[in-house]
């Protein structure tokens, strides 16, 4: 629209230097030029033009427009009418494994996960179709978790003031020190010296604290509490861990709502959200809900441009480094939760330009610096984080590679040499952070070697004997390295070790031990299992109070272990039965009796919270000893089992490709495992 000013002599603007009119308030008269009328277009013509464009696009995608216009039914590519269930079928859709697998893999790349894989894993854990006691253990475990995090998005106002949820000043400093000792070395998302100064200032005047700083402080409280045991919480704060966890988690949610989470572009608020999500990794929130929340963190990070490296956009070195740290933690967190929840691969499958964080200590960084600090040669405070980021980066490259297996092995050998020369050779295993870095890296490398040998990835019909042997060996290596961490003197990172149990390795060995009975590797595998059982008895029983052992996932794994032991006993009569097996037999017997009683009382569906699995959530110390979510204790070992159940990965970094599809080839298609030992080689083994 063009605007012209009236040029009448009695009206003129007060231009600079016009002394006569300086003190007058002048008006300006405007005239509007009439708009040119648009030529109207018939709605029908516009609609026809749109339809033609749509048909052109559909044709480009291979659609048969004539068949559609004639009213025929057009099958999707890769599917057939024979794979459809008949109308009115009462068959459980989740049990139609051949149908789902055929549809799933028709348009399914090896590295793309889908939610249906949940049921494949559940069928394997169930052991056989007649074991209804152990049906759908993963889903039932998830359903038993009390919180779905709905309050994060649909906030309910409360009369409780946020300032009243803060601990006293002395306890704030204790929580901050706990965070520095237990969390910060492995979750590096900010500059600790800068945040410490801000916490000191904020804690002296909590009534004047900024909204973003309040979010971050409650995030620090929540993660610090998650790293402590019940005994430590009572000794340090005089309250039970669960009471503190609920208080500070509620504080984070209230602070995020107050700060306007969904519209924020504030880095500090995003840091607080990430810390809250980290504190929820021990299954206090249903992983399916947690996956949605990590998606929010991803979207906020993308909106803030964290996915682009700041060095290419003129940002200061300090800000660039903090953005790198935060983005990579979001990437790792989202990948991990995506796999745990059964959603498959994270949405972060595109390439981003954000570089790896720098190998520098916090002491080398300060907010006003103008030149990036030189990279340190050797080990810094960032060693654990960088090893994890490096593994994530390498896996992203490996999964998109179409090279043959021997080329991938050579690339992996070169990558391992890079890690050794850059980081590991400088590590001292007597230092807790270094020991954690060494053994977790060994576990990740084993997973990297395992991934391309999965049949889906090499596009073969089945694994050959050498690959099966290597899979067994790598799984055993992962368990042995994890056991070394469990019995090591690194208790301040115990919370992290136990939420990263290499669960796929356990299941892989248990299934393989149905056929691998009398060789040296099988003996070592059972020794590793018994060592875990003894470690649990030594450390976790004395650290935690009596726990119910009714988790669905725990019962299913125990049942799977018993089936493998039965095969071993048949082949080796008179073999000594370990205490672990006696314990499992007792628990499975009790579980079946409880399930039968529940079924007789209510034939249609087992009662909730009365004798079924659904009354117990999966947040205990290990898959051998699960607890109720509402009574969650200090070191939630069981969550680590579930963190790896779908992925074969730690922190979501290196096992994405093994998703829930990883287990398809370890069991027959119909979910049955008879005692004839067809674990890996059975004729019904699914293969792509």
Automatic annotation (TrEMBL):
Any single biological process term in GO: DNA-templated transcription
Subcellular location: Nucleus
InterPro entries attached to this UniProt entry: Sec_Metabolite_Reg (IPR050613), XnlR_reg_dom (IPR007219)
Main location class: nucleus
Taxonomic superkingdom: Eukaryota
One Gene Ontology MF term: zinc ion binding
One GO term describing the cellular component: nucleus
Entry keyword set: Nucleus
Pfam families, alphabetized: Fungal_trans
Sequence ranges assigned to domain Xylanolytic transcriptional activator regulatory in this UniProt record: 290-363
CDD domains: fungal_TF_MHR
The protein's name in its UniProt record: Xylanolytic transcriptional activator regulatory domain-containing protein
Organism: Rhynchosporium agropyri
Origin organism lineage: Eukaryota, Fungi, Dikarya, Ascomycota, Pezizomycotina
């Amino acid at each position: 629209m063009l605007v012209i000013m009236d040029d009448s002599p009695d009206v003129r603007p007060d231009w600079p230097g016009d002394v006569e009119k300086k003190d007058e308030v002048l008006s300006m008269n405007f005239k509007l030029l009439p708009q040119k009328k648009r030529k109207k277009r018939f709605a029908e013509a516009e609609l026809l033009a749109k339809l033609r464009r749509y048909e052109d696009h559909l044709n480009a995608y291979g659609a048969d427009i004539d068949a559609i216009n004639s009213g025929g039914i057009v099958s999707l590519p890769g599917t057939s009418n024979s794979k459809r269930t008949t109308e009115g079928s009462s068959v459980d859709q989740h049990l139609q494994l051949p149908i789902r697998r055929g549809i799933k893999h028709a348009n399914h790349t090896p590295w793309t996960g889908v939610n249906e894989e949940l049921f494949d894993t559940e069928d394997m854990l169930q052991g056989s179709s007649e074991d209804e006691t152990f049906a759908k253990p993963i889903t039932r475990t998830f359903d038993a978790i009390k919180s779905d995090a709905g309050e994060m998005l649909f906030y309910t106002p409360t009369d409780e003031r946020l300032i009243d949820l803060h601990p006293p000043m002395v306890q704030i400093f204790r929580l901050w020190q706990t965070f520095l000792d237990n969390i910060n070395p492995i979750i590096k998302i900010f500059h600790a010296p800068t945040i410490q100064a801000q916490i000191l200032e904020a804690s002296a005047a909590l009534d004047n604290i900024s909204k973003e700083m309040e979010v971050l402080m409650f995030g620090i409280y929540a993660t610090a509490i998650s790293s402590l045991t019940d005994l430590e919480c009572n000794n340090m704060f005089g309250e039970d861990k669960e009471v503190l966890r609920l208080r500070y988690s509620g504080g984070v949610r209230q602070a995020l709502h107050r700060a306007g989470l969904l519209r924020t572009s504030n880095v500090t608020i995003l840091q607080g959200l990430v810390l809250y999500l980290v504190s929820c990794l021990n299954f206090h929130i249903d992983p399916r809900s947690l996956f949605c929340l990590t998606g929010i963190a991803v979207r906020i990070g993308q909106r803030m441009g964290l996915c682009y490296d700041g060095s290419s956009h003129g940002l200061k070195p300090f800000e660039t480094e903090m953005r790198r740290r935060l983005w990579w933690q979001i990437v790792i967190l989202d990948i991990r939760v995506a796999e745990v929840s059964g959603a498959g691969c994270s949405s972060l499958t595109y390439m981003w330009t954000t570089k790896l964080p720098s190998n520098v200590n916090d002491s080398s960084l300060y907010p006003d610096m103008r030149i990036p600090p030189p990279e340190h040669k050797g080990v810094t405070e960032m060693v654990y984080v960088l090893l994890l980021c490096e593994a994530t980066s390498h896996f992203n490259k490996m999964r998109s590679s179409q090279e043959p297996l021997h080329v991938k092995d050579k690339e992996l050998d070169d990558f391992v040499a890079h890690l050794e020369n850059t980081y590991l050779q400088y590590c001292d295993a007597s230092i807790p952070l270094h020991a954690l870095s060494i053994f977790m890296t060994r576990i990740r490398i084993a997973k990297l070697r395992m991934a391309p040998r999965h049949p889906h990835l090499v596009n073969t019909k089945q694994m050959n004997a050498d690959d099966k042997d290597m899979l067994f060996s790598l799984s055993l290596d992962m368990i042995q390295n994890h056991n070394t961490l469990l019995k090591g003197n690194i208790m301040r990172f115990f919370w992290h070790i136990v939420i990263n149990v290499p669960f796929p390795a356990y299941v892989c060995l248990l299934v393989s031990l149905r056929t691998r009975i009398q060789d040296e590797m099988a003996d070592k595998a059972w020794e590793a299992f018994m060592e875990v059982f003894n470690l649990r008895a030594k450390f976790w029983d004395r650290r935690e109070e009596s726990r119910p052992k009714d988790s669905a996932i725990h019962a299913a794994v125990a049942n799977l272990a018993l089936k493998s032991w039965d095969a071993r006993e048949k082949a080796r009569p008179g073999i000594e039965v370990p205490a672990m097996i006696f314990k499992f037999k007792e628990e499975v017997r009790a579980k079946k009796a409880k399930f039968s009683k529940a079924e007789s009382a209510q034939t249609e569906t087992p009662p909730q919270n009365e004798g079924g699995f659904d009354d117990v959530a999966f947040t205990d110390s290990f898959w051998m000893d699960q607890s109720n979510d509402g009574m969650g204790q200090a070191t939630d070992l069981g969550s680590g089992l579930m963190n790896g159940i779908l992925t074969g990965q730690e922190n979501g970094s290196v096992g994405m490709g093994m998703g829930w599809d990883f287990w398809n080839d370890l069991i027959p298609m119909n979910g049955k495992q008879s005692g004839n030992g067809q674990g890996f080689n059975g004729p019904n083994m699914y293969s792509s």
